[in-house]
Amino acid sequence: MDAGLCSVCGEESFGTGSDHIREKDGIWAVLAWLSILAYKNKDNLESKLVTVEDIVRQHWATYGRHYYTRYDYENMDAGAAKELMAHLVKLQSSLPEVNEIIKGASSDVSKVVHGDEFEYNDPVDGSISSHQGIRYLFEDGSRLIFRLSGTGSEGATIRLYIEQYEKDPSKIGRLSHEALAPLVEAALKLSKMEEFTGRSAPTVIT
To answer: Can you tell me the distance from the alpha carbon of 124 to that of 1, in angstroms, rounded to the nearest whole number?
Structure first.
C-alpha cells in the first residue's frame, strides 16, 4: 500500500477504505450501517422496523451465503505440526486417494478437484514466500486451507480454514457449525489431525 501498488478496501471501513485512508476501528462501518437502516426504514417508521438481520438474510437469498469457520491448534509440537503438513503435501499427488478418504469421512461433501501448496509473490520487492499453506479446492466451490505458523522448537500453530458457498435458499439460514460439519469432519480425517497433534479439539474456533 505504501508503494502505491494496491488499494485495499477492508471490512473495518465498510469497503470504502483504501491506501489513502486506513480506518481500523470500525466507526465508518457503523455509520454506513446506520445510513442503510435509515434508508430501508424511511417509509415504515410506524410499523415493524427492518433490522440488520433482515437485510443480511435478504442478501443471502439473492446472492447466496458463504459459510466460514477457522480452527486454531495452538502451542503444538513443531515436529508433529511439520509432519502433518508433509502428510497433506504428499496426499496432493493422488486426488483419487484424497477423495476416497473424504468420502469415507462424509458422503455429503463434494469432490476435490485441485490441491496445491501456495506461495506469495510480493509485487513490491519481487520476493517469493513459499510454503504459505496447503489448499484443497472442491467441485462445488468449497475449500480447505491448512496453514502452519511458528516453526521453532516449540509453539507451532496449525490453522484450518473451512469455507463453503451455499446458494440454495432453503439452506442459508443454518448455523455455521451445522452447515460446515461435513467439511470439518472431512478435513480432520484427511489431515489425521488428532493422530498427529494428540488434540481431540482445537484451541480456538472462530
So the answer is: 9
Chain centroid to CA 118: 15
**Dist CA 184 CA 164 (whole Å):** 11
3-state secondary structure of 90: helix
63-117 pLDDT, tens per residue? 999 999 999 999 888 888 999 999 998 888 888 999 999 888 888 888 999 988 8
Q: Are 148 and 81 in contact (CB under 8 A)?
A: yes
How many angstroms separate the CA atoms of 32 and 9, rounded?
14
Distance between CA atoms of 123 and 9, rounded to whole angstroms?
A: 18
Nearest to 33 by CA among 54, 9, 47: 54
Which residue, 151, 161, 149, is CA-closest to 191? 161
Written as nine digits, the cell of 114 is 485441485
